[in-house]
Amino acid sequence: MLTKRIQPMIFQARRLYVEVMFQVMGRALQAVSEVDKTVNKEAAALPDGFLFEMMVMPDGARLIVEHTGLGRFKYHGDSAPRPVDLSIQFKHIAHAFLVLSFQEKTSVAFANDRMLVDGDISYAVRMTRVLNRLESFILPKLIAERAVKEYPADLGLPEKLISAARIYLKVATNFVETVRAS
Amino acid sequence: MTNKYYEFFCPVKVIAGKSALEHIPYELTGLAAKRPMIVTDKGVRAAGLLDPVIAACEESGLEIVSIYDDVPPDSSTSVVRDIAGVYRQEKCDSIIAVGGGSAIDTGKAVNILVSEGGNDLSKYTGAGVLKHPLKPFFVVPTTAGTGSEVTAVAVITDESKGVKLPFSSSFLLPNAAIIDPRMTLTLPAHITAATAMDAMTHATEAFTCMAKNPLSDAYATAAIKKISQSLLQVMDNPKDAEGRLELAQASTMAGIAFSNSMVGLVHALGHATGAICHLPHGLCMSLYLPYVLEFNLEDIREPLGELLLYLEGPEVYANTPASRRAEASISAIRKLRDQLYRHCKLPRTLKETGKVDEAQLDQIAEMALDDGSIMFNPKEVTLDDAKAVLRRAWA
Known about the structure:
Structural class of chain A: alpha+beta
CATH class of chain A: Alpha Beta
Largest sheet of chain A: 5 strands, mixed
Oligomer: heterodimer
Shape of chain A: globular
CATH superfamily of the largest domain in chain B: Dehydroquinate synthase-like - alpha domain
CATH class of the largest domain in chain B: Mainly Alpha
CATH architecture of chain A: 2-Layer Sandwich
Largest sheet of chain B: 6 strands, parallel
Strand order of the largest sheet of chain A: 3-2-1-4-5
Order of helices and strands of chain A: HHEEEEHHEHHH
Radius of gyration of chain B: 21 Å
Radius of gyration of chain A: 16 Å
Order of helices and strands of chain B: EHEHHEHEHEEEEEHHHHHHHHHHH
CATH topology of the largest domain in chain B: Dehydroquinate synthase-like, alpha domain
Number of helices of chain B: 16
Strand content of chain B: 5-15%
Helix content of chain A: 55-70%
Strand content of chain A: 15-25%
CATH topology of chain A: Nonspecific Lipid-transfer Protein, Chain A
Structural class of chain B: alpha/beta
Distance between the termini of chain A: 41 Å
Number of domains of chain B: 2
CATH architecture of the largest domain in chain B: Up-down Bundle
Number of domains of chain A: 1
């Protein structure tokens, strides 16, 4: 009985968590493309105007970023200005929660068929590398190791801390700007 | 609670063994198909491999309404459109693809157009676009390696845009795969070796990569055992129908395994090498397999060690300390490759192919890094890692 009462709240909390994580990740993708040379180089190989979406099926939370050129991403929130070029879709919000709460690595989620790729697979592989790099920066090493296939051996603590601080500052600034604009 | 999860799907009816072709008329009738079209290539026809298929159907009063025998090695959207036009004109109601990977992929793509309507194949590219079952579709493989008869994917080149269009849907799977030893009896030695090593790689990667699961494991190990036991016998005696059937079955089993657990770095490097240097896929698989296993070793020590039982048999497995079995498995694969080199000069290094320039290695590494298969490799692969594996495979 108690479980039945609590369950809707758990579902709502899970949905809220996924929505917030998508907002953070979208802004962090924009920030990391400005901060990290490796991500910038990865992004530069994408066509200008390339729209990337990550979403929960069938019509749940989503994040959309655009490659605006020169390896820079721009976060568009949850609405795309035109049809997206690449969409990574979680089959269920429970699967998105597993990945975004770092209980399941992104690569394992792909292997477990939790996600679908709609678009060019090679771009999906590239975006997965970018997401892994981002997670390695912004998460404590112990948690990052649960999120990525292999924590980058060449990522030293000073670089990680400085980059993470810059990324979080940019994310916070973007959040404030969004609130002010609305 | 366990974190393990997997999916496994293979609805293809496998019809295998002596006089398997003679089951085609009955199976087609069971699907209410009376006007089949054969899709094949000139090589298959010239080798006389269509004759037993046609004879098996005619003997049962089933007329093959049309035969398209001009599928190129790298099939294109215009070829698919042409075949679909013939299919419609002749009022066919089913497709029998006879051949290797290209003929089978073409058959799958033709089935999309004739079932869904229209002539624009690009509308159906991607995963899960198809929502309805397609027309009755049978596959008769004439090589023992690709496993395309049990995979839910097809790749067709769009020559106007210069891109390869991938199609992925469970509806692409054929209704039946007919495995008849007559179809592979005349395969030349080097193709027999390369395609068998393709199947060996499918099974090995299926068993050692990230999406491995208990059901695909069962198919993978059985396939490896069959190839290990039969390949050299067939190389010694190409007319060994029993051995040919074992290899053909192994190929199908490996196909079922990898289509349900995916592949890894060997395929990523192989796809890139095929695209840049135009080397046959099976050859690339054979070439890269041991080097990639060495690269992945510490992440796959346990499953790779298990494979020794299927590669070398129970005696060698029992006599090898558990801690050395993974290395022994790699040695077994190297030994098999050496024997194939002695038989038919199947290259073991990039240099031995004579078709790869050392300067191309960096380009291959970069392309491999963006290949979808790399996602399922058990170990993360950086550009430097890929280059290192390629350098080891060079000579």
